Give the backbone structure.
Amino acid sequence: MICESIKKSYLKSQNLKIFGEGKLSGIVEISGAKNSALVLLAASLLTNERIILENVPSLTDIEKMGNILKNLGVNLVVKRNQLEIDSKNIAIKELPYELVNGLRASFFCIGALLTKFGEAKLPLPGGCNIGLRPIDEHINGLKALGAEILIKDGIVKAKLKGKKNRLFGTHIKLKCPSVGATETLIMAASLAEGRTTIENAAREPEVQDLCQMLNKMGAKIYDSGKEKIIIDGVNKLNGCTHKVIPDRIEAGTFLIAAAATSSSITISPVIPNHLEAVTNKLQESGSKITIKGNSITIYPKELKAVNIKTAPFPGFPTDLQAPFTALMTIANGESKITETIFENRMNHIHLLNEMGASIKLNKNVAYIKGVKKIKGMDLVASDLRSSAALIIAGIIAKGISRIYGLEHLDRGYENFESKLKILGIKINREFKKRTFTEKEYKIDQDPEDVPKCRAA
Ligand code: EPZ
């Protein structure tokens, strides 16, 4: 299941060649959620017994997380989209920088390692192309639970305070509903002494999926999905089998691609209420949406310009802001796209304008005037979700586009081009022996501008 780890430089010489003005039709199968599978892998550190994860997507981020666990001494058996994880022989070691680099989710292991083993050492996750990505909420929450944290030379060392042999439940109020911080603290509190309440907790479906699996393992977690979560610490967590929820961001990406090409498609399996903010916006912009059990079908009637403002769940997800912006480039009228979660998540705007879109950007607000046509060209994506946006733009555009920077796409979309091909898009992955220099293709930012930091 775990796809071959592809060397970054090799990926830079790959591209997706897309023949524009495409149409989609048929049914597309939605994979397991990347942002759920990653945190469930971290949670498997909380037990000495076997964890079986089903419906795990085959992505480079999952491969990286698997390598991190193996480096800790975890035994990982991969059977297609199923992972068997056995953490009974863990030896806590400092995780090498190159393993953790580029995968922020690896930092979420800190809560599990600390509460299970009394200590944890992890490199700082650092920033990435979409923002600084601080971890103050993770650190403050762990300190409130009784951890001693030392950050030196880029390494975070956490241990239990004094002679304590456990973390202690407490009340934590997050300054912002951080998904990762909520997940780190839920894992830490699951084996702490006593009750922990997390106020202003993230309500994302992936946080709820984590709580579902932890409760299967014997945890006592209440009100996940609400803004105040209660965790009564237990002494031990057991093994279990858990199926990862469908990926709502992949699902939303396909619905947006269908609306952009006036195509009717069905996506399945999905959990419809995970996508409500997105389906509501697509209906507002002129598509009919029908829901049947775990399937959603979209019938675009027209494409009206609508405004979106990203927000924590159940608001419009920041991870679909870039794909939705690509959609609005050809909508009738003027739309306003406001990104409120990350400070640098508008990297795609510059490129969409190069393709002929009419977008004015003022900090994190994009004002879009719909145009009749955009034109295909060679483009390089700079982060995971902008790569999906550029692919949608390539499918809409007149002419051929080549999208580079597939190391970002392959982090978060399983078999993306094959799924698009099955839906009727003329798209294929080209491998070039020669490497190419920046001047041969438009890049979305000068390398100097892109802060030397790591993937989202
Ligand atoms: C998770 O990142 C997701 N990643 C992101 O998906 C997603 O965009 C994000 O949640 C928001 O939904 C994974 O789950 C692996 P946050 P996370 O902590 O947890 C600030 C993708 O494309 N903040 O909810 O890192 C932070 O700066 C990725 O799949 C602090 O200030 O996001 C940001 O402005 C990208 N202090 C806001 O909270 C902290 O300690 C939301 O970040 C932590 C976060």
Remarks:
- Residues 35, 38, 104-105, 131, 133-138, 176, 178-181, 202, 206, 318-319, 341-342, 384-385, 412, 456 surround EPZ (CB under 6 Å).
- The two ends are 23 Å apart (CA to CA).
